[in-house]
Amino acid sequence: MWSGTPLFPEQASTMAARVDNLYFFLLAVAAFFTVLIAGLIVYYAFRYRRRAPDEIGVHIHGGLALELTWTIVPALITVVMFVWGSSVFFAQQRPPDETVNIYVVGKQWMWKFQHLDGQREIDELHVPVGRAVKLIMTSEDVIHDVFVPAFRVKADVLPGRYTTIWFQATKPGRYHLFCAEYCGTRHSGMTGEVIVMEPAEYQAWLSGGTGEGSLASAGEKLFADLACNTCHRPDSQGRGPVLDGLFGKTVTMQNGENVVFDEAYIRESILTPTAKVVAGFQPIMPTFQGLVSEEQLLQLIEYVKSLRSQTEVPTARPATPGPATGENTPVKK
Amino acid sequence: MSSTVLLPPRHYLNDGYGIRSWLLTRDHKRIALLYLAAITFFFFVGGAFAVMIRLELTTPIGDFVSDETYNKLFTMHGVMMVFFFLVPSIPATLGNFLIPLMIGAKDLAFPKLNLLSWYIYILGGFFTLYALISGGVDTGWTFYTPFSTVSSTTNVIPTALGIFITGFSSILTGLNFIVTIHRMRAPGLTWFRMPLFLWSLYATSLIFVLGTPVIAITMLLVAVERIFHFGFFDPRLGGDPVLFQHLFWFYSHPAVYIMVLPAMGVVSEIVPAYCRKRIFGYPFVAFASVAIAVLGFLVWGHHLFVAGESPYAAMIFSALSFMVAIPSAVKVFNWTATMYKGSISWDTPMLYAIGFIGLFTIGGLTGLFLATLPIDVHVTDTYFVIAHFHYIMVGGAIMGYMGGLHYWWPKISGRLYNEFLAKISAGIIFLGFNLTFFPQFVLGYLGMPRRYHAYPPEFQVLNVLSSAGASILGVGYLIPLCYLLWSLRYGLVAGSNPIGAVGLEWMTTSPPPTENFLETPIVTWEAYQYDQPMETHVA
Amino acid sequence: MSPEAVHTYSPALAHQFDDAGQQKEAATLGMWVFLVTEVLFFGGLFVTYLVYRNWYPGAFTAASHEMIVWAGTTNTFVLITSSLTMALAVHAAQLGNRRLLMTFLIITMALGCVFLGIKAFEYYSEYVEHHVPGMGFQFEAEHFQHAQLFFSLYFMMTGLHALHMIIGLGIMSVMLWWSYRGVITPEYTNPIEISGLYWHFVDIVWIFLFPLLYLIGRHVHG
C-alpha cells in the first residue's frame, strides 16, 4: 500500500530547493512549538491533576517581563521567516533576462500552450531542461490557475489580463500540471503535464512541428488582414504611431500619463483603443473586440514585439521594470 | 452530586409554555436556545455534505457522485458551515445566553432586536436551503467572479441573497453585544474585572459590525451582476474580477476571527474554572483579543498572493499576517501558564480546552507557512490550506464550542450530562479529527489541489486515511447530541454551581430565572478570584 | 431585599434597563454603532466607484457630464435643509413644544418627498435618454463600455441611498405619530434624537454621492 505513495514532492526546478529549505525551517519551528505547548499542557494535566475535592490552584503573578519575552521572541522568529520568505519570493517574481517564452491560454477545461515558433499543445507542455522558461498566461473565460508542484510554482490565470510565472527545470521528466483555481464542472479534469526534455530532444521536438509557422509570422499575416498596417506604418506617414522598436519602451499618453509598451498595453489597445491614446494622435482607432480571439491577440503581440526600429531611436527611455522580453527581442536602450 | 438538589421552582424554561412563548420570546436565554436548535440543524446538514465529500475522495476517480454534484457538495458544505454554523455558533448561543448573566443584567440592551436577529437568520437560512433543495450551487463558498456571475448555471442568486440576509443577523447581534457590554455592566464590574469571555465577544462584535456590511454589499453586487450584467467583475465589460476578491476577503478574513475569538473566550473561562486559579496575564489576554480583531482587518490580501496582486502589496500583507499571529501566541502561552500549578480537573470541558490549545497551536503555526510568501505560492489552493483552516475551525473553534456547551450545560438546562460518555466522545473527536486532517497537510505540500473531485492515484492512501478519520469524527459528534438531549429529561439536577466556579452566572439558579437575578449584583471581586473568598451580594 | 422591592418605572423604561439614563445612552450608542455599519455597507460601493473612476477617468467624466446637475444640486439643498428642520424638530421636542415638533417633522418629511420626487424625475429622464444599463443603454462609442459601469454604480448607489430615504420617511412617520400621541416629552426625547441621527447620516451619504457622481470634471470649463 505504501509504495507509490509519495510523502514529499520532487524537486525539479531551481527554486524548489529554496522553497523547501524555507519550508523545513518553518517545520522545525512549528514542531518545536507544538511539542513545547502540547508537552507542557499534557505534562501539567498529569502533574497538577486535582488530588483533593476542595484543592485550589496556586495563584502565580504574571509579569510584564515574561509577557514581553514571549511576545518579542516569536515576533523575531516571524521577522526571520518574513525576510527569508520575501527574498525567495522576489527571486520567484523576477524572471531572468533571457527566457524561453511560452504563451498559455486557459479555458474551461483545457490548457492551450503556444510556443513562439508556432508549436501548439493542448494540456501538455514541452520545455527544455536547464533553461529559464516564462509562461505568459491569460484565460478565455473564468479564473484558472497554473500549478506545477514539482517546480513549486503557481499563479492565477485571469481573463482580460496577462499573468506570468517563470521556472527553470532541473531534471528531465514528466510533472503534473494542475488547474488550482476552481473553475466549474471539470476543474479537476483540467490537468496536464509538463514534459522536460534534454536540449537536443527539445530541439528535435520543436522542429517536428506542425509547420504553421511562428506566432510572429501568423501575427504578421493578421496585421495585414485586419488592415492594421494602413495606420501603423513603419514610416511616420500613418495616422497611428509607428510600432517598430517600441516594445518595452515607455510612451507618453494624451493625458500626460506614461505607459510601458508591453503585452498588456498592446492587448488593451486592440480591444479598447481609446482607453490610452498616445500623445499627438487622434482617438480614431477602431476596436477589434469580438473580432480577434485570445490566440490571435498573442500572434499580433508577438509580431509587434518582433518589429525592429527602422531608425535609431536614441531619445526613447528604456522601460522601468516590466515583463522581460522574449529571447529574440532584446530591449533597445 | 447530592440527589436532594432540586430544580428551582421558577426558571426561564417553565416561565410560559407553548410555541408562542418561544417564538415571540424576548428572553435572551430562550433566543439562545432558538439559535442552538437552528445552528445544530445546519451543522449536521453541512456535516452530511462533508461525509459525502470524504466518501467520494476515498477513490482517485469520480465514481460516487458526478462532478457537478461534487462541486455543489463542497460549496454547500462551506456555505452552511461558515455562514450558518461557525459565525453564529458561540456568539448567538453561548454569547446570547451568558452575556447578561456575566455582567449582572436582566437582558441584553435590545431584546426585540435580538429576536429579530434570529428571524433574519432563519430567513437567510430558508433562502439558502431553497437554493440547496432546488438544485444546489457550485461556485465554492468563495463565489469567485466571473465564474459565479457569468459562468455558473446553478442557484447563485438565492444563495447570495441568503448570505446577504443572514449578514444582518450578525450585525444586529454584534450591535447588541457592544451596547450591552458598554452600558449595562453591574455596579463594580469594571472592564478589567469582566470575564475574558466578554472581552472575546466584544472583540468579535467589533468585527461583526465592521466586517459584515462589506460581505453584504459584496453578495448584493454578485446577485445584481448576475441579474443585470452591469460588469463590475466582468473583464469583457471593463470590470475587474480581482476587485471581487478584495471585497470578499475584506470580510471573510476577519470572519475567521469571528469564528475563533469566541472559542478562545470559552477556553479563557474553562481553564481558570477547571484549574481553580486566576488566569495568568489577564490584561494581556484581554488586549490580545482586541489586537486580533484590529489586525485581522489588515491582512485580507494574503488570500490574493497568487491572484494577480502586486508583489509589493503581497509583502505588506505577508508582514501583517505574521503580526496577527503574535497575539494568538500570547494567549496560548498565558493559558499554558495558567495550568502551571493549577488544581486540574479532567472533566470534559477541560479536555476540550486542552484539545483546543494543542490543535489551535498547530493550526495557527501552519498559518505562518501561509504567511510566508514562497511557501504560500506552493501550497495555496491545495489541501494544505484546507488542513490549516480545519485545524483552527474544527480543532479550535468547534472544540471550544463543545467545551463551552458542556461547561455551561448545567447552567442552561439545570441538568448534568453523562460525564463518562462525554469524555469518550471528546476522545473520539480528538482522534478522528487528527486522522482526518493531518494527512491533508502532507497532501497539500505534495500538490493535491483543493476542490478536486478526482485526483492522481498516488494521493489515494493519504485520502483514505483522511476519510477514515472523518467517519470517526462524525460518530464523535453524534454521541453528544444523544446524551445532551437525554440529560434534559433524565440527567441529575445540577444545582446553581456544580463545580464551584467563580462568575456571576454561577451565582444564580440553574436554570436561571427569566430576569436572571432578583437584585442587580454589586461586583467587588476580580475575575477568577479563586484564591480569595468573595463577598457576594446576589440573592 | 424583598422580591417586591419597588422600582420607579416611567412608562417608557424597558425592563432590562436600570433607569432612563441608561436606556437613553444604550439607544444612542446603538444608533451610532448602526450608522458605522451603514458606512461600511455603502463603503463597498464607494470602493468600487473609486477603483473604476481611477481606471476610466475619461468615461467617468463623460458620463458624469450627462447627470442632471440642477436636479442633484437642488436635491443637495433640499436634504441639507431637511437636516436643519430635523435638528429644529429635536430642539422643539426638548422644549416640549409639541406643535412645533410636529410641524418640523412634517416639513422634514415633505422635503424628503421632494428629494425622492426629483430623484424619480431624474431616473425617468435617464431612462428616456437610454442611460439605464440593461435597458437599451446607449452612449457615445468612445466611452460606451465604461460609461455603463458609471451608470450602474450611479443607479446602485443612489438607489440604495433612496431606499434609506424611504426607510427614513417611515421612521419619521412613526415619530410623527408618537409626537401626536404625546409619547415624546422633554423627559423622553430619545426616539427623536436617534431618528435625527439616522436622518443626518442619510444626508451625509448624499453629500458624498453628489460631487462624486455629478461633478466630475465640472470645474474645467470649455
CATH homologous superfamily heading of chain C: Cytochrome c oxidase, subunit III, four-helix bundle
* Known CATH architecture of chain C: Up-down Bundle
- Tell me the fraction of residues in β-strands of chain A, as a range: 15-25%
Shape by Cα distribution of chain A: elongated
Biggest sheet architecture of chain C: none
- Along the chain, the helix and strand elements of chain A come as HHEEEEEEEEEEHHEEHH
The total count of helices of chain C amounts to 6
Q: Based on helices, strands and strand pairing, what is the structural class of chain A?
A: alpha+beta
Distance between the termini of chain A: 60 Å
Total domains of chain C: 1
Largest interface: A-B, 87 and 92 residues
The overall strand count of chain C is 0
What's the helix-strand series of chain C?
Answer: HHHHHH
Supply the number of helical segments of chain A.
Answer: 6
CATH homologous superfamily label of the largest domain in chain A: Cupredoxins -  blue copper proteins
Number of domains of chain A: 3
Radius of gyration of chain C: 22 Å
Helical content of chain C (DSSP H or I, runs of 4+): over 70%
CATH class of chain C: Mainly Alpha
